[in-house]
User: Fold this.
Amino acid sequence: MSSVSVVLTVLFLSTTWSLRTDQQFWKDLAKKELEEAKQIKWNVGTAENVILFVGDGMGPNTVTATRIYKGGESYRLAFEKFPHMGLLKTYSANRMVPDSACSATALFSGVKTNKDTIGVDASVKRGDCAASLLPEARLESLASQALKAGKSSGFVTTMRVTHATPGPLYAHSADRNWECDAKMPTGTEQCKDIARQLIEDEPGKNLNVILGGGRNSLMPSLSSNPWVCSRNDSRNLIEDYKRDKSSRGLRYAVVSNKTELGSIDPDNDYLLGIFAASHLSYEYQRNQTDMPSLSDMVEAAIKVLRKNEKGFFLMVEGGNIDMAHHRGWAKVAIDEAAAMEDAVKVVMAMTSEEDTLLIVTSDHTHTLSINGYPDRGSNVFGIAESSPYDGINYTTLSYSTGGPNSFQYYVAKDENNETTVRRRDPSLNDTTDMLYNQVAGIRLVENSHGGGDVAIYARGPHAHLFHNVHEQHYVYHAVMYAMAYSSGCNLFPSFTLLTIVILINTL
Ligand SMILES: *[C@@H]1O[C@H](CO)[C@@H](O)[C@H](O)[C@H]1NC(C)=O
Ligand SMILES: *[C@@H]1O[C@H](CO)[C@@H](O)[C@H](O)[C@H]1NC(C)=O
Ligand SMILES: *[C@@H]1O[C@H](CO)[C@@H](O)[C@H](O)[C@H]1NC(C)=O
Ligand SMILES: *[C@@H]1O[C@H](CO)[C@@H](O)[C@H](O)[C@H]1NC(C)=O
Ligand SMILES: *[C@@H]1O[C@H](CO)[C@@H](O)[C@H](O)[C@H]1NC(C)=O
Ligand SMILES: *[C@@H]1O[C@H](CO)[C@@H](O)[C@H](O)[C@H]1NC(C)=O
Assistant:
């Protein structure tokens, strides 16, 4: 046997070995899981710190595909090993399928609201500036509650810092698109754009960490791209941020690239990092930029936040999962989900399960499907099988809705002189390419969100509160309950105090 064939044989054996199918293999796999399950104990202690990851658009099928991408079907992502999990129902006050603004408001402020609105209750219709100004319509977020309890608070995102997911942490807006003054329609002069709310209002100006993109919403700029925000009122909100912190004698740092972020003095109590004109670039293209990764940002955020002995609240958004799904790039979306898992691992290494409630969830799904029946161990971005009706291959991943590039059908004349609609043969393209567009069934402007439940994974104090099928807005209430156990903060009236009041009244 030549050395080449020896190597090939060994390679072949090791591949087949990793895909064992014998009884012992399955039994050992299950026994390991059972041992872990038997070890699970409730942590009824104090959630001093709360870190809430939102994989934007990261539905259960995205998680499954990410798992297969990273290590095959039997692999487990770091957060899939968390002791507790449940599902969240993501419908909003007015829609069966939500957007990120209403779902983030539900997660962070505990009330379901109308699609496309930020930090206000369902009495506010989209675009109703006057209604959004009523104090009773305005919701208070976990970030604000944490600050009130003396904790530090902040967020990290790969999106603009004024975008739909971080917005509800600090802003109240009748329209998610009012990120900058140039996007405010006439008749809304009384309402502040979201960028100004972040820099000028509470709780935005008291957030200890703000890391993400969106320079154009914060500084004078003009863009003809309708998806991009621009500042047209000649204000420089980054300078305003510095002035505010200086005038209050606060220690702060403002950074704009990976190098600067890596060398900040963690003694600073306030950190503003704006790394892109709009959203941050995809992780796989990041090495062509000077932007930090989600992991880099999370590490810097925790270094700043963890100095507070009363603890902290941090929201982390993996926003490009959603962006890539909207464009029909399943591989990019899954690569972004993998990058978010890396950031979860950073948090796991820097915090303790004893005092830190670590939650990984999503705001809504996308319409990604995993189709039958590819072989076990095959490339999740490859071909599944071919259709018996037209003989054309189809990919393992597809979407039910898509933009123009996902709509891979064409009109053909059949031999029998009939006009038919056919799928393009995916085998003619490299389906494993990053920018391959998986086929979609219904043509829209872009791939739409899905309405399925999302998973929530939790470890740390009161993680067991996530245990079955929950409402999405339950997350806020469960986190508040977990934080209220903190000796340093009485977010709920203490029972001891109530007892004393009752006793005094009785006496
Ligand atoms: C920008 O400001 C100028 C001058 O105030 C105004 O004419 C223009 O309409 C504004 N553009 C936008 C997009 O708000
Ligand atoms: C990072 O930003 C600073 C300040 O704007 C600049 O001086 C430096 O050249 C930048 N570094 C890189 C690698 O872009
Ligand atoms: C960036 O990373 C990609 C994928 O790993 C690689 O193909 C590319 O050559 C890298 N580009 C640079 C400029 O390093
Ligand atoms: C279908 O895909 C397989 C690879 O999975 C390929 O070998 C085959 O040629 C494809 N069939 C057609 C008709 O393109
Ligand atoms: C379909 O077939 C008929 C009969 O052969 C022919 O007259 C007609 O032109 C064909 N139509 C097309 C669009 O090819
Ligand atoms: C397939 O390849 C062609 C030629 O490069 C390209 O125009 C097309 O967009 C690709 N299709 C998909 C779905 O990526």
Summary: Residues 36 and 350 are 23 Å apart (CA to CA).
